Amino acid sequence: MSLEFAFDLLLVLTMVWSAWRSLSATRLDRAIVMFIVFGLLMALAWARLSAPDIGLAEAAIGAGLTGALLLDAYGALQRREI
Amino acid sequence: MTAGLLFASVGVILFALGVAGVLLLEHLLRRILAFNIMGSGTFLVLVGLAQRNGIADPVPQAMVLTGIVVAVAATALALALARRLYVLTGKLELSQDDEA
Amino acid sequence: MKRLLVVLGAVCLIVLLLGAMHDLAPASVELHAAVAANLTASGVEHPVTAVLLNFRGYDTLLEIAVLLLALIVILAIGREEASNAEATVDVRLLVSPVLQTLAKLATPLMIMVAFYLLWAGSFRPGGAFQAGAVLAAAAVLLHLAELLPSWQSPGARLRLGLAGGFLIFLAVGAGSLMQGALLEYPLEQAGALILLIESGLTISLGLILAGLFLLLSRDDGETS
Question: What is the rounded CA–CA span in Å between residue C38 and residue C137?
Answer without folding.
Answer: 35
